[in-house]
Amino acid sequence: xxxxxxxLDFVSPYAWLALEQLPQALQGLSxxxxxxxxxxxxxxxxxxxxxxxxxxxxRDWTYRHVAWLGHSLGVGLQMPAQHPFSPVPLLSxxxxxxxxxxxxxxxxxxxxxxxxxxxxxxxxxxxxxxxxQRLTLRHEPGADALRARLRQNTQEALAAGAFGVPTWVVxxxxxxxxxxxxxxxxxxxxxxxxxxxxxxxxxxxxxxKQDLQS
Length: 214
Description:
The N and C termini lie far apart (48 Å). β3 and β4 (173-176) form a beta hairpin. Helices cover 49% and strands 10% of the residues. The chain has a single domain, classed as Glutaredoxin. By secondary structure, the chain is an alpha+beta fold. α1 packs parallel to α3, α1 (13-25) crosses α5 (105-116) and α4 crosses α7.
């Protein structure tokens, strides 16, 4: 049985879509998933680039694209009333259900549905209180220990090579994005193509390297 580390942030619509599509994409395979909340903003900051919401045309495209994907995949997705937003309260609440920095699939789906169903404000205090009541908490939400755990998960993801969400890590291999699910399946199924080709891309010379350094 293969083990998958699934790094996610509730602010990402693609993470929501990937969470829902994962069982179907990997149907028939033997695997175990550890769901690990991370702070997407810290991942993108590490590499000096921003999310799509920072570029107005890309923001419009992204919201249009995920709405279409939600429709075409049969996954409910309505943009929340405000986006982007700080996901820290939601990440902290999810981690309050955890003993080791991992959350259950049930918790991941509950929090994701809170954000991506209904088009409401993800950080509305009354809605957050209702969400909290649907979860079984092991810690006080907002505790410093939970923020420390979030930083730890995020640093772990960076160390593994993650640069965004959704990211899956299997046997040291990093798979990023909703459209990586077929490749993730190939990895779990032992596709021989990966043995021959996985490590060839890093050997490609960067033709812009000199320009970037000048």
